Amino acid sequence: MGEEEYLVEMTGIVKKFPNVVANDNACFTLRRGEVHALLGENGAGKTTLMNVLYGIYRPDAGEIKVYGKPVDIRGPKDAIQLGIGMVHQQFKLIPVHTVLENVVLGIKQTGFIINTRKISQDLSQMISSYGWKISPEARVWQLSAGEKQQVELLKALYRRARILIMDEPTSVLTPQETSILFKTLRKMAAEGIGVVLITHKLDEVMAVSDRVTVMRAGRTVATKPTRETNVEDLVNMMIGRPLIKIQTPRVVARNKPVLEVSSLVVLNDKGLEAVRRVSFKLYEGEILGVAGVSGNGQQELLEAIAGMRKAVSGRVFLNSLDITNRHPLEIINAGVAYIPAESLRYSAPDMTVAENLFLKAYRLKEFSKGFLINWLNLEEKSKQLTIDFNMVTPSTRNKVGNLSGGNVQRLVLARELETIPDLKVILAGYPTRGLDIASTEFIHQMLLKKTGQGVAVLLVSEELEELMSLSDRIMVMYKGEVVGVLERGRYDLEEIGLMMTGVRREEVSA
């Protein structure tokens, strides 16, 4: 097809890394004026394929056509000259610079003397045409996550991009910001821009895309018009089976709290208040979800409860035992597990799978006596855990640094859930962040299994659907404070989204 039909045609793309074939004869097309969703599990090759299109990687085989003509994209500079823009999951902005300065950075056409007045007028017109509220003179550090994303889009639009790649664009957005983004993408498509949407959220695919391509194990499984498919069909193509339906958590008898936090104040790494007088109670067998845009004190809250960060004031009680600012080992021995957001950071990459699994439990009599470790028992238990948690590893003696992100997360999950005696509370910080559908489903099932055994879960997540399906209550945090708590049966997506921007529940209800 020519320029009128396809903006991009990728055929037979092969990209190899040491011991891994990331793209195996993969194919992809992008039409003018469409939003095309690209789906696949972790490691399916979708981001690699788009990195090839943007020039970050060079393919080992295959052909790329842009506007109907074969091209050799040797780097991002070539891609930009072809009218290809990419908005990465982690924004590439300079916080102390203005919106205008970030947009024009690296553009040679501006010349030695930059006509800021003319550029500001052009940007203001673009901003107005998309219904945005940002100012070209605003400093990036002053902007919300959604507004920073708009700056990234401005950068691409100002360079006259006709092909736009969006990598997991809603991962840091509130529902309201997501809605604004989708309107923007539809407007761009109406203007003839082709948009590639890399996402793992199936509801977003159904809501905003025209076509969808599914990848598995580096290959293109299928490309379909979105109106001719559904969520169940897409899941089957991605993982080869239907998803297990999440069972509604059982009714929780709120008699005596397992965990009680009272007026807790915690500082962040810069010495500023990250948690501001937070109080709540968590009951046996309950999942208390914590909603909020990342960076609003959730991480510091978990770390303070786990003993990994000092509380300035306030108290933390575990079954009436004061564990405030206790050593992490004391808190672990008391029955508290911590599933961190950055699983690799809380593992030892140069140590084996077996060694990592028992970093917290090697002291137990079952696995050690004095200074001697019972390696036979430890290896046997490790093998069983790799089976139970579906870890893909050649052996338990394989180094953790060789595992994929999803397998490291499963390892950490196994360590926290199965090696702590008398487990009472699980602190789960973004346990499914960046994971594919199958891994996410597995973690949900494990958390629900533990609540069925009476374990309480404090679940921090940016995924509102995850919180709404799993939680018995949802607590919303904004700038370190609790702005409201909602009971199951009274969840409202728009209300939670407003609370995530700082609107208190009484203001929402008014």
Task: Give the structure's gist in a few sentences.
The chain has 510 residues and is of the alpha/beta class. It has 17 helices and 22 strands. Strand 7, helix 6 (175-190) and strand 8 form a beta-alpha-beta unit.
Describe the structure.
With 510 residues, the protein is α/β, with parallel strands linked by helices. It has 3 domains: 6-239, P-loop containing nucleotide triphosphate hydrolases (Rossmann fold), CATH 3.40.50; 258-335 and 423-509, Rossmann fold (3-Layer(aba) Sandwich), CATH 3.40.50.300; 348-421, no CATH class. 32% of the residues lie in helices and 26% in strands. The protein has 17 helices and 22 strands. The chain has helices at residues 46-53, 76-81, 99-104, 116-129, 145-158, 175-190, 202-208, 231-239, 298-305, 328-333, 353-357, 375-388, 405-418, 437-452, 464-470, 493-499, 505-509; strands spanning 6-17, 20-31, 35-40, 61-66, 69-70, 84-87, 163-167, 194-198, 211-216, 219-225, 257-267, 273-283, 287-291, 311-318, 321-322, 336-339, 368-369, 372-373, 425-429, 456-460, 473-478, 481-487. It has a 6-stranded mixed sheet, with helices on both faces. It has a 6-stranded mixed sheet with strand order 16-19-20-13-21-22, with helices on both faces. It is a peripheral membrane protein. One of its GO terms (molecular function) is ATP hydrolysis activity. This is ABC transporter ATP-binding protein. Keywords: ATP-binding, Cell membrane, Membrane, Nucleotide-binding, Repeat, Translocase, Transport.
Mean pLDDT: 87
Q: Judging by the overall fold, what is the CATH architecture of the largest domain?
A: 3-Layer(aba) Sandwich
- The low-pLDDT segments are none
CATH class of the largest domain: Alpha Beta
Strands in their spatial order, largest beta sheet:
6-7-8-3-9-10
- Name the overall outline: globular
How many discrete structural domains?
3
Number of strands: 22
Radius of gyration, Cα only, in angstroms?
25 Å
The name of the CATH superfamily of the largest domain reads: P-loop containing nucleotide triphosphate hydrolases
Organism: Caldiarchaeum subterraneum
Protein name: ABC transporter ATP-binding protein
Domain ABC transporter: 8-242, 259-504
Keywords: ATP-binding, Cell membrane, Membrane, Nucleotide-binding, Repeat, Translocase, Transport
